[in-house]
Amino acid sequence: MEKVPDRRERRRQATVEEIKDTARRQIAESGAASFSMGAVARAMGMTPPALYRYFENRDALLAGLVIEAYDSMGEAMETALVGLPEDDHAGRYLALMCAYRTWGLTHPEALGLMYGASGTDVELSEEQLERFQNAVMRSTWAVVQVLWAAHKAGRLVVPSQYHEPPATVRLALDWMYTVLPAQDVPLPILTLALTTWIRADGLVRQELHGYLPEGLFGDGDFFDMESRVLAEWLGLAR
Questions:
Q1: How many CA atoms lie within 13 A of 21 on its CB side?
Q2: Cβ-contact 238, 231 below 8 angstroms
Q3: DSSP for 137-189?
Q4: Distance between terminal CA atoms of the chain?
Q5: Which residues of 127-158 are buried (b: 16+ CB within 10 A; e: fewer)?
Q6: Region label for 84, one of left (φ > 0), alpha (ψ between -120 and 50) or beta (otherwise)
Q7: Distance CA 209, CA 112 (A)
């Protein structure tokens, strides 16, 4: 039987969530670089020492927010695949891309916290590092699975350059193999998953913070067009 948290633990968890919500609002307003534990404590009517009873330091709080953001994004992308036919490779790929754009536009602060260098380069404990890597891999693994399934079905075009990527790229991908749920993913598939992901991410960032005309993006028409072009280039739409 699952243990029901007692009243004290529920109050503690509610305070933890309030701290994280307050931190998110401050980051959204002022950016991660200017975020501080003292400011969070003042906004909540707490003393800084009281706040440190819940989070060891600023890095611990920021790390928790970043991990939750990656988990939220990964969950959104995994959910997008539920119920879609396994052999609809183009449909599954487009669903992933659409889910990522939707999540990014509705969580711009989280997206900035995940990818920005503005104060989010924090020291992680061993446990936090493992949680972080697992959270990051959720979205990456979703893309890998879709492309890998298409490859097995003979429905994926892999550029020849991806079979022998440069040494620097191979070294970075070797690290990814240490945290992937499966170790037998072909190197070209992992390389392709990473590059297609980078392209989609670039479009979302442009839509959120770029200098291109706002009208270009419409209601997702530009992103959808480019995603379909990429799906065709990959051979998924055949």
A1: 7
A2: no
A3: HHHHHHHHHHHHHHHHTT-----GGGGS--HHHHHHHHHHHTTSS-S---HHH
A4: 50
A5: ebeebbbbbbbbbbbbbbbbbbbbbeeebbeb
A6: beta
A7: 10
Task: Name residue, tokens 């890597």.
Answer: 133
For residue 178, which phi and psi values (nearest 5 degrees)? -70, -15
Tens digit of each residue's pLDDT (9 = 90 or more) over 2-14: 566 678 888 989 9
pLDDT at residue 232 tops 60: yes
The half-sphere exposure of 122 on its side-chain side, counting CA atoms within 13 A, is: 27
> Rounded to an integer, what distance in angstroms lies between the CA atom of residue 25 and that of residue 47?
19
Residue showing tokens 């104060």: 119
Token code pair at residue 32 = 């991660």
pLDDT single digits (tens) 112-139 = 888 754 444 566 778 878 888 888 888 9
Q: Which two tokens stand for residue 94?
A: 């487009």
